[in-house]
Write a structure and sequence with these properties.
Residues 85-114 are annotated as: NMPbind. By secondary structure, the protein is an alpha/beta fold. It has one domain (55-286): Rossmann fold (3-Layer(aba) Sandwich). The protein has 10 helices and 9 strands. The protein has helices at residues 2-26, 68-78, 86-96, 99-109, 116-129, 144-157, 171-179, 219-242, 254-269, 281-286; strands at 27-29, 47-49, 57-62, 82-85, 135-138, 163-168, 181-184, 189-192, 246-250. The strands form 3 sheets. It has a 5-stranded parallel sheet with strand order 4-5-3-6-9, sandwiched between helices. Strands 1-2 form a two-stranded antiparallel sheet. Strands 7-8 form a two-stranded antiparallel ribbon. Strand 7 (181-184) and strand 8 form a beta hairpin. Helix 3 (86-96) packs across helix 4 and helix 5 runs parallel beside helix 6. The longest helix has 25 residues, at 2-26. It is globular.
Length: 291
């Protein structure tokens, strides 16, 4: 009798192992205690399907001069992702003479902020075009009201944010970058005499037109801009921190910060980067780098 029961149990175990093998192979078990910690990130799921990849829906935050444009460029070069920059969208609509572009132009002429509903409409249209694709958002939202409105729209369209990257660069480094910054106003291309100077001093690489210095690119004015930025950004960071999708990447140079970003993208989205490439001055300027 004992041998019969033993045989039955062995047969049952074999059937169980076979039936669960597919399920077990489908999952990788994560140890939350050993998971690398980032500010704002937590280990929520103990098991994650290795065969399913999350789409990259990324928001890039950082102070003016923190190097968001440079990091955006490098992410685009190394991963299959499209970047959406609020400044570029505004310029494109103005240049194309769209209805929204005409409204935006009026606000810019009067030096007033573009209303949130207009910005949301622009961003939403672009994100709808990129639905089911990877995208990176830069320059919007800037306030908590914009963030909640954007989230509502993204959730309705079924493509919510799943990673917010905050670039933290020391203030003295940012101030030095700003002092060395020159701009080609018509295109928005930005040059920096320290690390991506124009080929000919004072002239745009593409058009040969003169570069100008922004009137607010001086230490006194820029410190005020930074203070205003921090006041607006703190609630944003808290908002995304509560959603467990925020990470901070800290460094003095883009080469210090980018590896942190790439490691997070590989771990979170199960993606393999293309061959790393360092952005050249002209390539970065084509992307309207606002370092």
């Amino acid at each position: 009798m004992r041998s019969i029961l033993t045989n039955l149990l062995q047969q049952k175990n074999v059937r169980y192992v076979k039936s669960t093998a597919t399920v077990i192979n489908r999952y990788v078990i994560f140890d939350c205690h050993n998971k690398k910690k980032h500010f704002g990130s937590t280990c929520v799921n103990h098991a994650s399907p290795t065969t399913e990849k999350l789409p990259m829906h990324i928001l890039l935050l950082g102070s003016p001069g923190a190097g968001k444009g440079t990091q955006s460029f490098r992410i685009q070069k190394n991963f299959d992702i499209s970047a959406i920059t609020s400044g570029n969208l505004l310029r494109q609509n103005i240049a194309n003479g769209t209805t929204v572009g005409k409204l935006v132009a009026k606000h810019m002429e009067h030096g007033t902020y573009v209303p949130d509903d207009i910005m949301i409409e622009l961003i939403a249209e672009e994100l709808q075009r990129l639905k089911h694709q990877n995208w990176l958002l830069d320059g919007f939202p800037r306030t908590i009201n914009q963030a909640t409105a954007l989230d509502d729209n993204l959730n309705l369209s079924g493509q919510p944010l799943n990673l917010v990257i905050n670039l933290h660069v020391p203030e003295e480094v940012i101030l030095q970058r700003i002092m060395d910054r020159w701009v080609h106003v018509p295109s928005g291309r930005v040059y920096n005499l320290s690390y991506n100077p124009p080929k000919i001093h004072g002239l745009d690489d593409i058009t040969g037109e003169k570069l100008t210095k922004r009137t607010d690119d001086n230490p006194e004015t820029f410190k005020i801009r930074l203070q205003k930025h921090h006041a607006l950004t703190e609630p944003l960071l808290e908002y995304y921190d509560k959603q467990n999708i925020l990470i901070n990447c800290t460094g003095r140079t883009s080469d210090e910060i980018y590896p942190q970003i790439e490691s997070e993208l590989i771990a979170r989205f199960k993606v393999i980067p293309h061959k790393n490439q360092v952005a050249t001055s002209t390539e970065e300027n084509f992307l309207n780098v606002a370092a």
